[in-house]
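Submission sheet (multi-component)
Chains listed below:
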Amino acid sequence: MSVPLTLLGLLDREPSHGYELKRDYDVYFGRGKPLPFGQVYATLGRLARDGKVVVSEVGPGVGPDRKRYVITDQGATEVETWLAEPVEPEPHLQTVLFAKVVLALMLGRPAEQYLDSQRRAHLRRMRELTELKRTGSLVDALLADHGLFHLEADLRWIELTGARLDTLAKEVRR
Amino acid sequence: MSTHPIVEARDVVLSFGETPALRGADISAAPGEILAVMGPSGSGKSTLLHCLAGILLPASGEIRFDGRRVDTMNETQRSTLRRDRFGFVFQFGQLVPELTAEENVALPLLLGGARRPAALTKARSWFERLGLGGLEHRRSGELSGGQAQRVALARSLVTAPEVLFADEPTGSLDSLTGEQVMDLLVTTAREQGTTVILVTHEPRVAAYADREVIVRDGRVNAYVPEGVGP
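Outcome: structure written.
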């Protein structure tokens, strides 16, 4: 899971304070593992340094919670590029794919197109592994099969998620 | 790969009663290409295959084979086309139960006017190649699912068709047997230069193809970026 890009994605939805970002991150992406406040502010500090967010207003009082963060055009472009680009097909990528789908739906982006790109990337890798299987040794075939079954599991998730996008969108938009 | 398609559908529309099956489907395959047609159940992928093969006629749109319109041919012309130029392999129940395995394989040759001894000799040459040696005289009830499917594959390829239409060809087989069938199908198609239109919902089967398209709600998503292509 890419925490900086996920926080940036949440900011693409609307300007937020750090504690709001932490709350939404924990609800949608934390899965029982809340993001420490320290990491939220450290990440926002780096994003600000790199020109991807700016501080829009500073409220009264002291401490980092006074600041409200707004995504810049550069930050928004980075989110868009990240969402649209298929994840490198390999086992255990579900958390990144999952974050992308949820954020895409939150932001009203074409999640179905992103899933299509991902399917294409997966099938391309499956074709390579199938060719390896057809031309290689039995040991090669065993190894290729291991990869193929994991990629197939991802694809099943992609299909099911694709079929549920409308319902999912209602759940994550507010 | 040649840019001139061997089979092509353009803006094909077809309904079954009130239910739309194809809503402007476009697809094309280059000579020798193995094209996987994927999509969820009920998406229209089998209907599209039947249209491409001249089995179903679209309400509108064009179907072409080697540049010739198929949808404007009469039933006799389409029947001849299917028999002489196309091969078919489906999921279930394709063998004629009264005939032996070798007679089943010889069937398209006999229907095309070949003499029985010549047809049977040619049919038998396929048995060793597909790992079916010794099963020539068995009837379909005496074959396992994988054997029967390989016999069906031999029958679909015995005429060296220009296009093989395969609809879920491994759908009724276990993983290992399915792989053997796919491996034989792909190897033979490549040797013969046969174009394959492979309808499947299984990614592992689609991975044998050169390329895939997704049928969704009666339309084809061919992954062509917007504003590009025909």
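Remark: The first helix of chain B runs from residue 45 to 52.
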